[in-house]
Specification:
With 216 residues, this protein is mostly beta strands. The chain is built from no helices and 19 strands. The chain starts with a strand and ends with a strand.
């Protein structure tokens, strides 16, 4: 991998190096757990939930498929703006970590791939990592570009969240390297991942594999 300076910031560039399968959590002292989850497809303003055992589902404008350990979340028209896994592990305090490998299909632009949901102030989220089409595919989160040159490549993402009654903080890691850390708001939190946002292109597709959850 290599690095590129853009407007004073250092952005990780993916160059042919694929992350190892299930590399595990970043940091020490984490225990893996397996919370329940639901698939959510929002079509024409209505959210339909499916159990985590679902292998295939679709609504007007969006679809989900799971095969060979890969989850494919897709938007095909503006009939849907959400095809997401909603993790049933609500927390207000404590430490949590998300790990997963993401592959973005070229043409996807300005779509959420992963969220820490929950914010007592303005806005609904603490963190939203979004994929953009520029520079060969770019992930952006926490107000900055995180990594570029990702389209069609598996990228390992770890997000740690230390939630406290006053707010806490989160950090983002790309292929094991910390690329961003920031304070976060207080709120009732949970993780979400998939594809979410108003479709601005012909279609949008995120694939996820090796998704794991940890806590302290």
């Amino acid at each position: 991998m290599r690095f590129m300076a853009i407007a004073g910031a250092t952005v990780l560039m993916v160059a042919g190096i694929q992350p190892a399968a299930h590399a595990g959590p970043v940091g020490s002292g984490w225990t893996e757990h397996s919370p329940a989850w639901n698939l959510q497809i929002q079509s024409k303003g209505v959210i339909t939930s499916y159990p985590g055992s679902t292998t295939s589902a679709s609504g007007p404008g969006g679809s989900y498929a799971r095969s060979g350990g890969v989850q494919t979340f897709k938007l095909v028209n503006n009939g849907s703006n959400r095809v997401e896994a909603r993790i049933q592990d609500n927390y207000r305090t404590g430490q949590r970590q998300f790990e997963g490998e993401l592959k973005v299909t070229a043409g996807t632009d300005d779509e959420s791939a992963m969220q820490i949901f929950g914010n007592d102030g303005d806005g609904a989220t603490t963190l939203m990592i979004r994929s953009f089409s520029r520079d060969g595919g770019t992930l952006r989160g926490g107000g900055k570009d995180l990594v570029s040159g990702i389209n069609g490549k598996w990228v390992r993402i770890n997000v740690t969240h230390n939630a406290t009654a006053a707010g806490g903080s989160y950090s983002i890691y790309i292929n094991g390297k910390q690329v961003h850390t920031a304070n976060g708001p207080k709120g009732d939190h949970y993780f979400k991942y998939g594809v979410y946002g108003t479709l601005k292109t012909a279609s949008a597709e995120h694939q996820w594999r090796n998704v794991h959850f940890y806590r302290k």
